[in-house]
Amino acid sequence: MNVPLYLLTVAHLICAAAGAEHVSLERQLLEEGISSGRRTCRLYCRVGIGFHLQIHPDGRVNGSHEPNQLSVLELFAVSQGVICIKGVYSNRFLAMNKRGRLYATQLGLSAVRRGDRRASSSRPHRPVMGALAGEWFTDDCKFRERFQENSYNTYASLIHRNHRTGRDWFVALNKRGKAKMGSSPRVKSQHVSTHFLPRVDLHDKSERGFTITERSKERRKTPPPLPPKPPLAKAVLPRIPTSRTQVKYWPKYRFG
C-alpha cells in the first residue's frame, strides 16, 4: 500500500469537504429566493458613475458605487406588477412617504415578534399573505415595477403621486448617490436617475486581465549589428574659370 498516496487522497477529501461547507451567505440567500419565489439581487442605477441602491440599518437610503452587504435586496411580489423591496442585512423595507422622500421602515419582523405595540399604533400595518406571511409593512412600501425598453426597470410609489397632474413618484438617485425626492418635477421615468438594473450575481468579481506574449519572438535571436558604413567621399568638381565683363551704366537725365 502506497502510504503517501493514501495520505494525499485523505487530505484532498478533507479539503473538498471543508470547501463544500464554506458556502457564502449570499449564495444561500440566492438559492432560498429562487425556491420561495423571492428575487435576491442588487438594484444598479446607471446615473453618474453608477450606484447600487442600499438600505442602512438606521433607516437611511442611498447608493454605493461598490457593491456591499447593504446593497443585497429582496424583491417580493405583492400583486400583479406591485412589489416591495427589503434590505437583507438591515431587515427594513424601502418606503416612500407622502412628501416623496425615501426611507426604510422602522418596524420589521423582529419588532412584531417583540410585541412592540407602540410602534405599530402610530401607523396601520397590514400583513401580506403568501411570500410575506408573518412580515408587516405599510402601504408606503408598495412600488409599481415597470420594464423599460432599454432593459432597465423603474419603481414608482403605488399610493403616492401628484394628484393634480397624475404624475408618478419614482425611486431615484442623483449623480452623487443620494436619494432624490420622488415629488421633484425632474424625476421622470425617462431620466437615468430612475433606471435600475436588477443584478442577480451577488458575488463581487473583480475584472481580471491577462496578456499573451509570443514566445517565438522571445526565443528568436537578434541579428548582430551591421558594421558602420564608411563615409562616402565627396566628389570634387573642377573649377571652370569664368570671365567677368564690366558693364557701365550711364544715368539718364531728363531735362525740361
Automatic annotation (TrEMBL):
SMART domains: FGF (SM00442). Belongs to the heparin-binding growth factors family. One of its GO terms (molecular function) is growth factor activity. It holds the Pfam family FGF. Keywords: Signal. This is Fibroblast growth factor. Transmembrane segments: none annotated. Residues 207-238 are annotated as: Disordered. It comes from the Eukaryota. Residues 1-19 form the signal peptide. InterPro entries: Fibroblast_GF_fam, IL1/FGF.
